Amino acid sequence: MAFKAVPQKFAAKINALTIGTGEREISLGGENVFPFYSFDAPIENRPKIGIEIHDRGHYAGVPGMDAYYAGADTLAQTAKRAAAAEGADFLAVSFDGAHPDNGDRSVEDCVAAIKEVADAVDIPLVIEGSKHIEKDAKLFEKIAEALSGRNILVMSAREENYKGIAASVGLAYSQKIGAESAVDINLAKQLNVLISQMGVKSENTAMNLGSAAAGYGFEYVASTVDRVKAAALAQNDTMLQMPIVTPVGSEAWTVKESIVSQEDFPEWGPREIRGINMEVSTAAACLAAGSNAVILRHPESVKTISKLVSQLS
Amino acid sequence: MALKGLDIFKLTPKTNCKDCGNPTCMAFAMKVAQGAVELDKCPHMSEEAKAQLGDATAPPMKKFTLGAGESVFTLGGETVLFRHDKTFVSKNLYAVSVCEGSFDGKLPEIMKVDYDRLGERMYVEFLNLQFTGDKDKYAGLVEKAMGTGRGIILECRDADAARAALEICASVKPLLNGADAQNLNAFGALAIEFGVALGVTGDNLDELYDTAAALEKLGCKELVLDVGSSSVKGAFAAAVQMRRAALRDNDRVFGYPSLVNAAKLAPGDEYLQTALASVFTLKYGSIIVLDKMSYAQALPLYGLRQNIYTDPQKPMKVEPGIYPLNGADADALCVTTVDFALTYFVVSGELERSGVPLNLLISDAGGYSVLTAWAAGKLSASSISKFIKEFEIENKINNRTLVIPGKVAVLKGEIEEKLPGWTVVVAPNEAVELVKFFKEYKSA
User: Do B281 and A285 touch (CB under 8 A)?
Assistant: First the structure.
C-alpha cells in the first residue's frame, strides 16, 4: 500500500510578467500551483531576486556592504557592482533622496542618474520611488520616458497617485507598473481594478502587497498572500492574478534587530550578521507565502536566497 | 471522510443530558463533526457507536507531548493548512544538533539564547543528539544533555545504542528518531517498551508511508515524520504533501508532526539554515533542527514563529506598563499608545530610532489598534487617566507632558481635564513621522 499523492494544480494561473530586454529579460509568475509546489505541476519561472541600491549609492554603514561597493563613486558604478552580485536577477533603484524631507532631489537629477545606470548595466531595472505621492508621480513619468524601451517595472502606484502613473508609465511609455497596497486583499484588488480601468492590461501589472519584517506582524503578510494566491488560483480571480513583488530589504534593515549596535547589545553579536539573518528570514518567508520576487539589499542575502530558490525549484 | 453532524447525532443517546457540557445532543454532534470536541466527552455513547464513529471523528492530526516536568512541549493537532482558515495551534520547536565531540563547545551559545518576547520564552527547546558510532560515548552525551533541562532528541539508528540511551533518558520522554523500513520492528518495540515517541524516516514518501503504517500496526501511537535530508526540494515536497494528505484528504497515516533537519539540508551554511527554518515555519515543520542558534538567527526566527502561530482571532498583546526607551529617566517625556503588539513594535521601533529618551506608557486597550480601540471605547480619556492613576505614574515619573497618537487628537482636551497638571501633545498620524517629530520636539 503506497502513498497516494493527490496533486493540486489549478486551471487558473498567475500572469507571467516580463521585465528587461534581450538576454537578461526575466519573467515573474506564470505558475498554476502554490509556491514551490512543483510536485503538483511544473513551475516555469522560479521566483526572482532583486538587489537594491538607492539614488546616492549603496546603503552604507554595514562593513560587508561597504566593502562590496568600495570604490564605486557614482550611481552607475554602484549599479554595475550590484548587478554583478551572485544570484541577482534584477536591479532595484530606490529614489529615497527625492523625498522633500530627505534631500528633495530634483526629477531632472534623478533622471540623469538613472540614464547613466541604464547605460552601464543590461540587467532588468525596477524603479522604486521616494514614497512621496506627488513627487513619485512626476518622477515615474520622467523615468519611464527616459528609459523607454527598457521594459522597466515602476514601483509603486498607490491609490492616491495611480491615475497619473497608469496613464504615463503604463500607457504612454508601455512600461510595467507595480500596484502598492497595505497588506489587505481587498485594497489590493481594488487598486488592481482601478488600474485596469485606466486601460493598463493586467498582464503588465505586478502587486506589491506590502511587507513586514519577521516578528513585526508578518502573520498579516503571510495570510494576505495566502488568500491572494488562493483567490487567484482556486477562484480564478483575474484581478488578483498579478505576480507579487515584495521589497524586503527596506523592512528588514530598519527594525531594531538590524539597527542597534553591538556596543549597546553585546550579547546579540555583530549588527551585520543580525541584519542578514533578518533579511534572509523575511525573504524566505515571503517566498514561501507566495512572492514571485523579493528585493534585498545585502549581497550575502541575495546569494543565500538565490541558493534557497534554486534548491527548492 | 469527515462525518456530518446529523450522522453523529443519530448515534448519540438523544437524551440531552448535558453531561458533555453541551445543551443538546445535537449541539454536541455538530461540535464533534467540526473536530472541536472529542467523541469520548459523551459518557453515554454505546461501544458500538464509538467503534462506528471512532475513526471517522478522530482529529486528522495526532497531538501529543514530548519532554517532562517543566519542559513539556506539544506537537501536532493542526486542523487547517492555512492559518486564516482557523489558526495554527502547536508552534514549531527548535533543536540544535550536537554530537559527543561538539557538545561542550556548543552548549554555552545554546544556553545563552533565552529571552522573553511578548510573554513567550524564546530558547532552544531541544538538543538533537547525534549518534557517532560509539555506544558508550553516546550514553555519556545523553547524560550530559540530561543535565541541561532541555528536551532530548535521539538521532540514532543503532538499536543497542538507542536502548542504552533510553535507559538514561526515558524519564524525560525524548523523541527517538531512528526508525526506518529496515529496523522498524526493533525500534517500534523500543518505543513501546520505553513509552517514547518515535521518529520515522524513509528514502521516499512511499517508503515513509509504509513504515509509518507498519509502526502504527505494531502499536506505536506517537510518531514524528522526518521529511528527509537528501535534498531541500524533497524535504519541502514531503512536508507539504504529508500535511496536506492528513488535513485535506484525511489520510491518517501521515497525520503526525514532522521533523526537518536544516543542519543536514544546508551543512555549514548559517544563512541558508535560517532561510530554510523560515520556510518550514510557514509550511509545516513541527521540529526544526539547526547547527546552532545564535542570537542573530533567533531574533528573526522566533519572531516569525510567534507571528505565524498567533491566533488570527486573538491579536498579540503587550503587557501594560512603563517602557523606558533610549535611557529615559523620571524626567523624560511620556508617550502613550495601545497594547496591540504590532502597534507597540512599530511605534517603539520608531521612538528608538529617534534617539530621544522617552517613557512609553502602554495602557490596556484590549489588544486593538489605535483607531479600533478608540471606536470600541477601549482607548479613551478615562482609560488613559485610569492607567496613569493605577500605575502610579505621577509617583514614578516627574515629567507632566503626555504625547498621544495623532489619530486620537480629539482626546486632548478631555485628558487634560481628567489629569490636572498634565499637558497633552498630539503626535503625527503615522509612526514613520515620529522620528522627525521627536528630533525636532521642543518642550513648550
Answer: yes
CATH (domain of B90): 3.20.20.20
Q: Do both B290 and B196 map to the same domain?
A: yes
Q: Is residue B314 part of a domain?
A: no
In the stretch 125-154 of chain A, residues with CB closer than 8 A to chain B read none
H or E stretch including B115? Answer: strand B114-117
Same domain for B21 and B69?
no
CA distances from B91 to A290, B83, B284 (A): 21, 12, 10
Model confidence at B443: pLDDT above 70:
no
Task: Express each pLDDT in A124-179 by its tens digit.
Answer: 999 999 999 999 999 999 999 999 999 999 998 999 999 999 999 999 999 999 99
Q: Is the pLDDT of residue B444 over 70?
A: no
Q: Is the pLDDT of residue B35 over 80?
A: no
C-alpha cell at A254: 530598519
The pLDDT, as a whole number, for residue B268 is: 95
Instruction: Please report, for residues B107, B155, B198, B294, B321, the alpha-carbon distance to residue B148 in angstroms, rounded to integers and kept in the order given.
Output: 9, 18, 22, 18, 33
User: Are B237 and B345 in a shared domain?
Assistant: no
Count interface pairs A-B at CB distance under 8 A: 176
Question: What distances in angstroms separate CA B14 from CA A130, B10, B410, one per listed residue?
Answer: 67, 8, 57
Regarding whether B83 and B171 lie in a shared domain, the answer is: yes
Which CATH number belongs to the domain containing residue B44 in this structure?
Answer: 1.10.15.40
How many CA atoms, within 13 angstroms, populate the side-chain half-sphere of residue B388? 26
What is the value of pTM for the model shown? 0.89
Q: Looking at the structure, do residues B67 and B167 belong to the same domain, yes or no?
A: yes
Q: Are both B229 and B357 inside the same structural domain?
A: no
Report the CATH number at residue B376: 3.40.50.11600
Encode pLDDT of B64-122 as tens digits. Answer: 999 998 889 999 999 999 999 999 999 999 999 999 999 999 999 999 999 999 889 99
ipTM of the complex as predicted: 0.97
Position B2 pLDDT exceeds 60: no
> Which of helix, strand or coil describes residue A51?
strand
Identify which of B403, B392, B399, B321 has the alpha carbon closest to the alpha carbon of residue B361. Answer: B321
Are B296 and A213 an interchain contact pair (Cβ–Cβ within 8 Å)? no
The verdict on a CB contact (< 8 Å) between A214 and B307 is: yes
B104 and B186 share one domain: yes
Q: Which residues contact A112 (CB under 8 A, 6 or more apart)?
A: none
Q: Which CATH superfamily is domain A21-312 in?
A: Dihydropteroate synthase-like (3.20.20.20)
Domain that holds residue B171: 63-308
